[in-house]
Amino acid sequence: MRQLLRQLFDRPLIRAILAGGIASLALPPIHALPLICALSVAASSLLKATRKREAFWLGWGTGFGWFFVSFYWLANALVTGGPAFYWMIPFAVLALPMGLALFWGLAFLLVWCCFSRAPARLAGLCFWLMVMEWLRGIILTGFPWQLPGMLFGFAPLGFDLASILGVYGCGVVALWLAILPIAWRCHRGFASMLAVLIALGFGLAYSVSHRPLETSTASGLAVRLVQPSIPQHEKWARNHRPNHLQQYLDLSLNDRLGDTNAPIPELIVWGETSYAGRAQADLPQLKTYLTTISRHQSALIIGSIRRNQSGQYFNSAFLLDANANIVEHYDKRFLVPFGEFAPFRKIIPAIAALVSTTDFSPGDTPTQLPLTRNNGQIVHIAPLICYEIIYPTNTRKISKNADVIVNITNDAWFGNSLGPRQHLAMTQMRAAELGLPIVRVAGTGISAAINPYGKIITRINYREIGAGDAVLSGRTTTFYARWGEAGFILVLLMSLGLGFIFRWQIGDER
Question: How confident is the model at residue 122 (pLDDT cuts 50, 70, 90)?
Fold first, then answer.
């Protein structure tokens, strides 16, 4: 057995898969930061690769390990969905990581083709891998979940670095750290330059760590987060709807917390599809109920299905005023494949029918919700539904000139796994990048109010039934909010420059 295991682990592909899986544990919520250096094992194999095919499979194996460990919880979503979805479990657990790993395989292949010397290949790996990770967030609607830059999803310096470079730029720095051990072994001069760049990055992060809060119209806004933690198998049952509404009422009034004298918030937020029906159509019947919750003093954001005159269905967020009148709505623009729509329904209708009979339609405009406060000021709310918050570029665009981001979600599908905690960490990263407070409310999951520095100020844990109050602060000015991916491009070019410098230089290579 020992000999068999030794032969198995001597295979570069197996080592690459293990390296990718171990390295992914450096990301939130586990945050075993030193494990990111496991990528040095894959990088070391790349340095020895003699063929294009070998380089590609090394990258693919590393990516497969990374994504397999990161997304194991996708099986929970399909188990939660019931027996009709069990057939998709192999696709979610194996096929998705195998497909996403292609981006890493291409990155390793391009490194092998562009550079031949050891230090140049290491620098090129940081460049090409992050280019491919950026493309992963775009192609076929994109899925930028568990990016390498999430290594810095911690306070204070990690979030401060993100406020400058964004999560993609942080990814380049994360890869610099990851390859430092193998860089030190093969070329001390190159490793020293990497160490200097990493130190400069953290020095820059420290320099902005004391950036002051700026007053906005959201400053002092009292918000109540409502999380009833309704089991997914009950959520859409019509016979349970009255009980669910009563539960929302109790929590919104704070009665369940035993604090009937709690201050009345200016805004109450429920989660994604918190009303398991069509709130717009049912509003006449709901109005008395909703005004009881608002006490004619609180605005309300709820999630619900919307149907337009053309018969299209949307996953929407509604802003209601204190008298339960709809002020504005937002339709989700980034839909979950196989969850909210079946890809290629017209091409393979038989398979699509196994997923669902009707697709949601994506929204076409990044609408902001205007909340009029009791003092007459208007708070511009950037709404995001579910995993829309994981898209850094889209979040930056929709939050332009906004005072606060409200992210409503339902993470019951993930189960009590790494999934909801990864989702929360990415929400914290968005707050830090943009210098905006974020109110995140999960019908079932982890709800939190996050300040402009990425720190959680109010939290309701997974499976906890409760309501949480938060008073929002202002905002901060960040380089990323103003200049977007400029920092990412800069550190990418630094990596590329190192690659070309050491493409010809021999130095003290060892």
Answer: very high
Which are the contacts of 444, defined by CB distance < 8 A and separation ≥ 6? 227, 228, 229, 230, 231, 232, 271, 410, 411, 412, 463
Q: What is the DSSP string of 429-443?
A: HHHHHHT--EEEEES
Summarised one tens digit per residue, pLDDT across range 334-391 is 998 877 776 766 655 555 555 566 788 999 988 999 999 999 999 999 999 999 999 9
Give CA 400 to chain center in angstroms.
19
> Which of 228, 235, 239, 232 lies closest to 293 in space, CA to CA?
228
pLDDT at 1 over 70: no
Q: Are 506 and 141 in contact (CB under 8 A)?
A: no
pTM flag (> 0.85): yes
Q: List, in sequence order, every residue forming a beta bridge with 439; answer none if it has no partner.
A: 406, 449
Contact 336, 284 (CB under 8 A): no
- Considering the chain, what percentage of its residues have pLDDT values greater than 90? 73
Backbone angles phi, psi at 471, to 5 degrees: -110, 120
Residues making up the chain, counted from first to last: 510
SS (H, E, C) 313-331: EEEEEEEECCCCCEEEEEE
Closest CA to 219 of 437, 494, 416, 468: 437
Question: How is domain 222-477 classified at the CATH fold level?
Answer: Nitrilase/N-carbamoyl-D-aminoacid amidohydrolase (3.60.110)
As a whole-number percent, the residues of the chain with pLDDT over 70 amount to: 91
State how far the alpha carbon of 400 is from the alpha carbons of 382, 403, 486, in Å.
8, 9, 17
Helix (H/G/I), strand (E/B), else coil: 360: strand
- Mean pLDDT to the nearest integer, 394-398: 96
* Omega within 30 of 0 (cis) for the link into 156: yes
* Secondary structure of residue 377 in the 3-state scheme: coil
- C-beta separation of 437 from 452 below 8 A: yes
Phi, psi of 421 (to 5 degrees): -75, -35
Question: In sequence order, what are the beta bridge partners of 268?
Answer: 224, 300
DSSP classification of residue 424: H
CB 305 within 8 A of CB 273: yes
Give domain limits for the chain. Answer: 2-211+484-504, 222-477
